[in-house]
UniProtKB/TrEMBL annotation:
Signal peptide: none annotated. One of its GO terms (cellular component) is nucleus. It comes from the Eukaryota. Residues 106-232 form the DDE-1 domain. The lineage of its organism: Eukaryota, Metazoa, Ecdysozoa, Arthropoda, Hexapoda. This is HTH CENPB-type domain-containing protein. InterPro entries: CenT-Element_Derived, DDE_SF_endonuclease_dom, RNaseH_sf. GO terms for molecular function: DNA binding.
């Protein structure tokens, strides 16, 4: 290789790559798992604290945690209605070949699953984006399989209430499962409503929200079930999932999922903490940024106080009220500068190693009545 060296000359050859991989067997090619940035705020300490607090707040009901048939995990996942690719076929060279489907690749269905730690499945619920469910879909559903609809095909507080009251509770009664039971689920707002809270309290169903942004660690359905389900994509696109979830191998997956997440046996030592995202260098830089921003904020506030002893108080009242500065026009730019620096310090708080992440108290996680969103006067009924 001569000089000067161009970019192409510096590129590694395919032979070099495979030789490098052969000599470094610890390395492998992997698909990156997409995770929410907020998951980076989850720590082992916070998860262990969550286990301790849940156990304490359950009180006498904590005995349920020793009975796998009374411990449930409930979650929904989305499946595409149209295949991304079809079977290999022969076609004229130079021309595109299409396999046409009635559903676009943007259409999805949501299916809600519920299973206990023994791998016993409650009837699922599949939601469609229809104003009226076609008769062919209703007729093709397996026995006891819930079929519903919503405006966008996603779970809503109304459809979730109907599942719990019309499908999940009858399942518990029919299978003689002793109540109360515990249902672990994520804290999405679609799982919270006043009617649902009253219903669960009256029917001895204890709903416990998993620690925020930790479902990839604590949710058995996420950890051990949804991956294998979606790997059977061709079956999902052509059939309902009843045959798949009742497969003996899936029962084994469920049991291992409850073990790996520490939900049964209920023990924080069983959690796979290797899934926690650690960004050591980034967190150090963030801490330095927070310190710099705080020093800038203190400097600016001192200067504001020197200019006008009342001005800083007026700025803070404007910020708390959420309205723009409407005072002295000469102070507009100063207000904007102060507000920008102050907001920057807030933006760093949730990932700083020195500032703990604020999370809802555990009694909130156990009590859907604390939800401050839309409260429905009555649950709606899907026809």
């Amino acid at each position: 290789m001569g000089f000067p060296v161009d970019r192409e000359g510096l590129l590694s050859s395919e032979k070099w790559f495979y030789s490098f991989m052969q000599h470094h067997k610890i390395l492998s090619q992997k698909h990156a798992e997409n995770v929410n940035r907020a998951r980076g705020s989850v720590t082992e300490e916070k998860i262990r604290n969550w286990f301790t607090e849940v156990y304490g707040l359950l009180g006498d009901d904590a005995i349920i945690l020793k009975e796998p048939n009374r411990i449930f995990n409930l979650d929904e996942t989305c499946f595409s209605l149209a295949p991304n690719k079809g079977e290999l076929i022969l076609g004229e060279r130079g021309k595109n070949v299409y396999d046409e489907h009635s559903n676009s690749n943007k259409e999805n269905i949501t299916t809600l699953f519920a299973t206990n730690a023994l791998g016993t499945w409650a009837p699922p619920l599949t939601l469609y984006k229809y104003k009226k469910i076609p008769a062919i879909i209703a007729r093709s559903a397996p026995p006891n399989w819930g079929i519903g609809k919503s405006e966008n095909g996603w779970m809503t507080s109304e459809t979730f209430y109907e599942y719990m009251s019309n499908i999940f509770l009858p399942f518990l009664i029919e299978n003689n499962i002793e109540r109360p039971v515990i249902v672990f689920l994520d804290g999405h707002k679609s799982h919270l409503s006043l009617y649902l809270s009253k219903f669960c309290r009256g029917n001895k169903i204890i709903m416990v929200a998993l620690y925020p942004n930790s479902t990839h660690i604590l949710q058995p359905l996420d950890v051990a079930v949804f991956g294998p389900l979606k790997s059977t994509k061709e079956q999902i696109e052509k059939n309902f999932l009843s045959g798949i979830i009742n497969n003996p191998e899936m029962k084994t997956n469920v049991e291992s999922g409850f073990r790996a997440t520490g939900l049964y046996l209920f023990d924080s030592n069983n959690v796979d903490y290797s899934k926690i995202i650690v960004r050591t260098n980034q967190l150090r830089r963030i801490d330095l940024n927070v310190e710099n921003l705080m020093s800038h904020l203190v400097f600016i506030e001192n200067k504001i106080f020197e200019l006008d002893v009342d001005l800083l108080g007026k700025f803070k009242r404007a910020e708390r009220g959420g309205y723009a500065w409407d005072g002295n026009e000469e102070a507009v730019l100063l207000f904007k500068l102060w507000l920008e620096v102050k907001n920057d310090t807030k933006n760093y708080d949730h990932v700083s190693t020195s500032t703990p992440v604020s999370s809802p108290p555990i009694d909130y996680l156990l009590s859907p009545t604390n939800y401050n969103g839309k409260i429905h006067d009555r649950p709606t009924t899907s026809n």
